[in-house]
Amino acid sequence: MAFFEHDGCTLHYEEYGQGEPLLLVHGLGSSAQDWEYQVPALAPCYRVIVVDLRGHGRSEKPRERYSIAGFAADLAALLERLATGPVHYVGLSMGGMTGFQMAVDHPALLRSLTIVNSAPEVKLRKPLDYWQWFKRWSLMHLVSMGAIGRGLGQSLFPRPEQADLRRMISERWARNDKHAYIASFNAIVGWGVQERIGQIRCPTLIISADHDYTPVALKEQYVRLIPQARLAVITDSRHATPLDQPEHFNRTLKDFLAAVSSTPKDQRVPC
């Protein structure tokens, strides 16, 4: 467990293993804990770095406006502090949005980019978009974080055999600071860099669950805008793919990383 300070906020991160640096970035209301099925699988062959974004986990939760660009700036500062050089970046949901922002704002820091169940913009354009945003915004203000977590657990892990995952998400969500959670949600709404993703030059993998909130067709559209991007669809999965399909997810990610590694094959640790 380690901490660093950037832009007035103390941020928590952890490191495991050695090899090419690999940064794992969580989504809204989550934390570094939610990579628990990935760290043991990746640490034998990568220098795995997990971080709690500001407002999340063990990082400080300043009572201020948050932004996706601000999250990316925090991560850029961490990589500079750790002297990693370019990293393999993996981001889920809001972490994926932050990855898109990193790729256009700090391209020299990325060896590769993996985006999981995310998109390069969250724009409100139709009346239904505004209505959906208003419902979520109202719910966050009216109910407890524990209630949100219980509802989210039912949505993400609906099968009877996923009871432990439902319980875990409910317990972790209840520990969220509501102000920081709402500030992070507000950072997402209206954000976007889709007009710039054609600038992304590093190898890019887009991972989509077949039952994600946003359809596979949306990912297919923006994958075509990124020069070195490809799409992988993971079946029987919802928004939290690294948790509900960890073996399939880990295999897909490791195959991609092996293909884009800059380390000669005869010098790599088997992974």
TrEMBL record:
Pfam families: Abhydrolase_1. The keyword Ribonucleoprotein does not apply. It comes from the Bacteria. One of its GO terms (cellular component) is membrane. Coiled coil: none annotated. Keywords: Hydrolase. Residues 21-133 form the AB hydrolase-1 domain. The keyword rRNA-binding does not apply. Gene3D superfamilies: alpha/beta hydrolase. InterPro entries: AB_hydrolase_1, AB_hydrolase_fold, AB_hydrolase_sf. GO terms for molecular function: hydrolase activity. This is Alpha/beta fold hydrolase. It comes from Pseudomonas eucalypticola.
